[in-house]
Amino acid sequence: QVQLVESGGGLVQPGGSLRLSCAASGSIFSRYTMVWYRQAPGKHRDLVAIITSTYRTTYTDSVKGRFTISRDNAKNTVYLLMNSLEPEDTAVYYCNAVLSQGPYDYNYWGQGTQVTVSS
User: Fold this and answer.
1) Is 114:92 a contact under the CB 8 Å cutoff?
2) Each residue of 49-80: pLDDT tens digit?
């Protein structure tokens, strides 16, 4: 069982920055692929960024060049640094941990943290 706790959300002006954190419990954090999603009001939950256990990263097009995902396995934490924020980035941001081991799939979610970009 893995528990994920997001933090770092808040209200920021357009063009500003925030860094989200997702702290995970458990001793095999380093083996998980970690993903950030976001869900705006009335919309589906969309993938934002992925970082694998080998530190390979992927981003959705709308955040490329502005957001950076990283992980610190010693702290069991994944980060999402968000620069040049736009009102369209307003959403609840969720952390997701995924691991496949043989026939078993593990998938855990955090509770989400609100990001509001507004002047």
Assistant:
1) yes
2) 999 999 999 999 999 999 999 999 999 999 99
